[in-house]
Each structure stands twice: as structure tokens, then as C-alpha cells.
From TrEMBL:
It holds the Pfam family MTS. InterPro entries: SAM-dependent_MTases_sf, Small_mtfrase_dom, tRNA_Adenine-N(6)_MTase. This is Methyltransferase small domain-containing protein. PANTHER family: TRNA1(VAL) (ADENINE(37)-N6)-METHYLTRANSFERASE (PTHR47739:SF1). Residues 114-242 form the Methyltransferase small domain.
Length: 319
């Protein structure tokens, strides 16, 4: 869907909110589901120009207890251009990596350019972890934890094609204490892009990969923050991106698990506040430091073009 077709939804959200908050939420769901998520929407220098497509049949099962829902049957896989000459496997009609993924990886890289160990929670198809790893010298390691079998398969396909050996890809649920115990501790960086919508917000996509990526069907921001607090080094940084209407939930979870915000970036599309990215440290390492004032990053300009600031980040990342 072309971005211009969604130009008026943010304004509609503001107007509808004056009548009923639920209507505002539904319209915002439509906006964030359609704007700048599909990698094919991006400029040529970044975010997944298509290289090759294949057909991939996943089989079938019924109900939301399995990712192999009928919405994932016979899905087309695209090989899309990624960082530093790499390509990434993603479903044409499934979850496709987006600007929020790239910004999360960028902020993690900037938070500690010399970091050697990163843990990506809910790693999906691997976009955040791989975008970070592509910036690192030899010796850096990335651990990825993902619960969806379909996303794990896609990520494994990418790693095999790239012959990347520096990734430890795990299939498991971050809410499971026994799973977390197998990952190790004292990571220099932990990253996360949790589902943006509660389990009851809007309609669940028919494609189950999208549904689990977008909706809190396996926990939400609180569970991600809990896992990060357990596995992060005392001097490490936790980098997370989330939806702007969930900012209160984000701040509550960070406070609950004793994080201090070192950097905050408010992310705008066409002048509308879409997402928030935070770089946090454990409060024990902050020495009473006050939380950072919010920065502002416009990703898409009012005319639909990519902003100079965002293009500069993509160029630095090798996209």
C-alpha cells in the first residue's frame, strides 16, 4: 500500500479520539499497520529491495495455539537487500522488517560501539540482531531468542545463506525461566521490539506470524523488560522501541524493573508521533543521573519522502 493513501489517518485519529478513545485506537492500529512497515516501501538504498522470491509451504493446523496457522500456508519468501551487502529472508505477506527495527539496532550500536555480546529478545526474522552484527568487527557475538517457529526458520535460512557463524539462534519463549537460564548472563546489550498492540486491540491478522509480532499473545513490554533485567550486564544498555500510545506502559515497566532512560528518541512519520525508542541502563549504574530529554527524529517527511536524518542513519548502517 502506498504511503500517501494513509496520509490522513493520523489526523482522523485525533478527530475520532474526541468522540471515543476506542475509535482512536482502532484508527491508530490501521495507521501503524500500513505505514512504513513493509520493506518494499523503502528507498533503494535501504530496507529490503527484493532480490529473489521462492515458495515455502508451512503445512497447516487450526487455532491460535500454533504459529502454523492456515494464514502461513504456501507463503512466498523474499530475499531482500539488507546491511553491508547481506540479504534477509522474509515472507511477502508476513512480518517484514521496518524502520523501527533499524533504529533499535542503530541506537544499540551507538550506545556501546565496542560491545561484544548482544541479546535480541523476540528476534523475529533477525533484523535487529543482524543489523547490529553487520556493524561489528570480528569477534562480536549475537544471541537471538524467538518463540515463533516460522520466524526462526526464516532467520535460520538467512544465516545459512550468509554463512554467518556469530549468531546463536534459540527457539524459545522469553517468559520461560528455564529458557532464559540457558542463554547466559552479563550481555553488553539487550534489544527488543515487543508487540505494539494488546491481545484485544483491533482484529488479529489472518497471517499468524503478523498476529504474534503485532499483538501481545505471548506477553508484552513488561515481560520483555523483566527478561532484559535478568540478562543484562550491570553496566550494559537495554535498547527498546515501542508504539507511542503505549508510552505509559513502557515507562511503568522500565520503572518496575529498575531501568533509567539514558536516551529517548521520539519517532515521527509525516509529523505524527508513531514510536518511541529508549536506551536504558540499570538504575544501579546510573548514579542518580536524571533521565535524558527526548530527541525527535522524523523518518518520513510531510511530502512522503524519507528524511535526511533517517537516510543518514541508513547510510551509516550500510543499508
Amino acid at each position: 500500500m502506498a504511503l500517501v493513501h494513509m496520509a490522513y489517518i493520523p489526523e482522523a485519529c485525533s478527530w475520532a479520539g474526541s468522540f471515543h478513545p476506542a475509535l482512536r485506537g482502532c484508527l491508530w492500529f490501521c495507521h501503524c499497520s500500513c505505514v512504513a512497515e513493509d520493506a518494499s516501501e523503502a528507498p533503494k538504498i535501504l530496507l529490503g529491495a527484493r532480490i529473489r522470491t521462492t515458495r515455502w509451504a508451512f503445512g497447516s493446523s487450526k487455532g491460535w495455539g500454533s504459529e502454523r496457522d492456515t494464514g502461513d500456508q504456501d507463503c512466498e519468501v523474499t530475499k531482500s537487500r539488507f546491511c553491508r551487502g547481506w540479504s534477509i529472508s522474509q515472507l511477502r505477506e508476513g512480518y517484514r522488517y521496518c524502520a523501527d527495527d533499524i533504529l533499535c539496532a542503530y541506537l544499540a550500536w551507538q550506545a556501546d560501539p565496542k560491545a561484544q555480546r548482544l541479546l535480541d529478545l523476540g528476534s523475529g526474522i533477525g533484523s535487529i540482531g543482524l543489523a547490529w552484527l553487520a556493524q561489528q568487527p570480528r569477534g562480536a557475538k549475537c544471541t537471538m531468542l524467538e518463540a515463533q517457529e516460522v520466524s526462526v526458520q526464516l532467520c535460520r535460512q538467512t544465516l545459512e545463506a550468509l554463512q554467518v557463524k556469530a549468531v546463536d539462534l534459540r527457539h524459545g519463549d522469553l517468559r520461560d525461566p528455564s529458557t532464559l537460564q540457558t542463554l547466559g548472563t552479563n550481555f553488553d546489550l539487550v534489544t527488543a521490539n515487543p508487540p505494539y498492540f494488546t491481545s484485544t486491540s483491533g482484529n488479529l491478522p489472518k497471517n499468524s506470524q503478523k498476529a504474534y509480532c503485532r499483538h501481545e499473545l505471548r506477553g508484552g513490554v513488561s515481560e520483555f523488560c523483566s527478561a532484559a533485567a535478568q540478562l543484562l550486564s550491570p553496566n550494559g544498555s537495554f535498547c527498546m522501541v515501542h508504539a507511542s500510545p503505549r508510552l505509559t506502559d513502557v515507562l511503568t515497566a522500565l520503572e518496575r524493573y529498575h531501568f533509567t532512560i539514558q536516551r529517548r528518541v521520539d519517532i515521527f512519520f509525516r509529523g505524527n508521533y508513531k514510536s518511541v525508542a529508549v536506551v536504558c541502563s540499570p538504575k544501579s549504574a546510573s548514579n542518580g543521573q536524571q533521565e535524558a530529554a527526548a530527541e525527535r527524529l522524523q523518518v518520513i517527511e510531510e511530502d512522503g519522502s524519507w528524511s535526511p536524518g533517517y537516510l543518514e542513519i541508513c547510510e551509516l548502517m550500510g543499508l
